[in-house]
Request: fold
Amino acid sequence: MEKRIRVALAGNANVGKSVIFNQLTGLHQHIGNWPGKTVEKAEGELHFKGYTIEIIDLPGIYSLSTFSLEELISREYIINERPDVVINVVDASVLERNLFFTLQLMELEIPLIIALNQVDVAERKGIKIDYRRLEEILGVPTVPTIAIRGKGIHELLFKVIEGFEKGFRKPAPIKYGSEIETRIKMLEEALRGAGLSYPLRWAAIKILEGDEEVIKEVRRVRPEALTLAEKMAKEIEEIHGHPCPTVITSERYEVAGKIAREVQRILPTIKLPLSDKIDYLTTHKVYGYIIMAITILVTFYAVFGLGNFLSEVLTNVLYGYETIFVGILGSGLLRDLIWGGVIEGVIATITIALPYIVPFYLILYALEDSGYLARIAFLMDAFMHKIGLHGKAFIPLILGYGCNVPACLGCRIMETERERLIAGFLSTLIPCAARSVVILGLVGKYLGVEWALYLYVVDLAIVFIFGRIAFKVLPGEAMALIMEMPDYKTPHLKTVIKQTLFRLEEFLKIAFPVIVISGLIIKAMDLLNVLYIVSKIMSPVTVVWLGLPEILGVLLILGVLRKELTLILLATLLGSQNLHEHLTPLQMLTFSLIVMLYVPCVATIATCIKEFGWKKAMLIAVIEVFFAILLGGLFYRALMALEIFR
Amino acid sequence: MEIPLTELKEGETGVITRIEIGFGRGWRWGRGIRKRLADMGLTPGTKVTIIRSAPLNGPIEAHVRGYKLAIGRDIAERIFVEVQR
Reply:
C-alpha cells in the first residue's frame, strides 16, 4: 500500500511560509478556496523516500482565536482533520511573537516540527539563535531554514519521515500561574466525558478565554461547566485587575518571551540595515507620499500600458478567426448567436480581463511580498477612515480606476468579511478605464475636459457617501488598523508568479460561464428584436425620468457586457459620428453619469459573485442600478433648473 | 504618569497599564479587537517604543516585542502607558 503522510504548514504572516510551501511542492500544487469561504487554500504533494507527502498551507495568522476567518479555519482544520504533523514556520528574527503562536499549537496537542526560518535575516539583525536549546526547551524537533535559498528544506522532510516512522512525541503544553492552573484542572474535570472534539485542557483554557466557538459547543453538552468557567474568570480578573482573556494571553506571551530570551543572543549591529532606511523614506510625511504616488503611477502605467498592448494584440489575433468561423457556420442566425453571443463574450474576457489581471497580480503580489503595501496602508489610514475603511482598502480602490475586476479581487487583503464587502462594493463604483473611455469620449470630447473632471468629483463624493452608509448599515465591530509592518525584503519571484497563475485560473472558472451565458441571452434578445421592445418598456425611465432618447435604453443593456460598448454602439445606433448633433450636452452628461454608476460590467459582477456570493453580488448590482437611475434623473433636473446649458 | 499611547513622542518608551477597548470610551470596539491587540503582543506590562506617527492624525508605528506594529490612532488613544524616561 502507498504510504501517505499528511502535513500542515502553520505560522504567522510574513514569515516565508508560502515560500517553504513552494519549495516543498514545486509544481504539484493546487490553490483554491476553503469551502464556502473567501480564504485561500493551498494544497500540494511530493514524493520522498517512498512516501507521498500531502501538504496543506494554512493561512498566515498570529493566533488561534476567532478574530478572523483565517484563524478559525486553521484551527478547525487542525482539530477536525488531524494532520499527521504540523510544521510551524517560525520567523527567527521575531522569535517572541512567533513562539506565542507555537505555544498555542502545542496546546492543541498535535505532533509538531518547527522550521526556524529566515535565520539569515535574524543574523543580519544581530540575532543568533541556539536552535538545539529551543528544541530542548519546547520538546519539538527544530530545523533552521532559509527558505528563499532552499536551505533546510531537505532536513525538514527528513524530520517528517523520522517522526512518522518512530512516532512523534506529543509536545508538553506550557504551565500558567498556579491560580490559573488549578482552575484549568477543575474545568478539565468538569468537562471530562462530555465528548468534545477538542483536547480537554485546550477546551478548558478556551472557555476561560471566552472563546465563542468552544463555548457554543460546550453549551450543548455540558452547560454547567460554563457557569463554573464564568465564575472562575471573574475570580482571575479580581486577582490580576485585568479581564481573564487578557491575563491568559499575557501569561502565554510571558512564557514566549522567557524562552526567546533564553535561546537568542543579541549582538549589537553597527550599521542601520537597508530595510530601515527604506522604511524611513517610504513612511516619511513628504517623501512617503511622493514615493507612493510614483509607485501607483508606475503600477498604473505598467498594468494598463502593458494591458492595452496585450489587449490590442489579442483582439487582432482573435478577431482574425472571425472569417474562418463564418466560413464554417455560414452567416445565418446560428453564426450571429454563437459568434456574437458566445465567442464575442469570450474574446471580451480574454482581451479585457486577462491582459490587465496578469500584470496587476504580478505587481500586487510583488508589492505585498516586499512589505510595501503595509506602508501605503499606514500612510493612507487617516484618509480612508473618513469612508469607514482603514488604510489597507486604499489599494483596491485606487486600482478600480483601471479595472474593477482586480480591484474587487484585491479586497482580499482586508481582514474581516465586512471590510472586504464594503471595499468591494465601493471599488465597483470607481470609474474603470472602460467607463473613462465613455466619459472622456463623450463629455470630455464635446463639452470639455473640465466637465469630465466634474463627473469624477461627483463620483468621489458618491463613493464617500456610500462608504459611510455601508459602514453604518452593515453590522459588525468598528474598524481598526492593527497591522504588522514587516521588514522590507526582496519578493520571491517564483512564489509571486505561482500565486498569479492560480488566481487567474480561479477567475476564469467563475467568469467564463457568467459571461458566456449573459452574452448569449443579450445577443438572443438583440436578434429577436426584443431589445427594442425592452427599450420601449424602459422608455418611461429613459425618456421621461432621465430625458434621454429612447434608443439609449438598448445601450444601457448592452453596456452590461462591456461599458465602452455604450459609446461605440452609440455612434452606430445614431448613424453618425457627430454625436453632438443628436444629443444635447445635458443628455451627454446624464448618460455618462449613469454609465459610470449603473452596474459593474459582467466580468465585475462575476468577480463579486466569486468573492461575496450570489446574494450580495446581486444586491450590489440592484442597488447600483437603482441609484444610478435615481441620481441620473435628479442630476438632469438640477442642471435643467440651474439652466447651465441653454 | 499614565498617558495615552498617542501622547508618547517619537523614540519614547512606555509600559502598558490598561487598554480601554470593549468598554468605557472604547465601547465602539468589541472584545474581538481587544483580543487582537493582546494576540499581537499588546498586553499590560508590555514595553512599547514609538517609531513614528503617520501625518494627518494617522496611525502610529511602534516597536513591540521585537517587531514593528502599526496601530490606528483611534485605537492607540485607548491604550494607556506609564512613560519611561
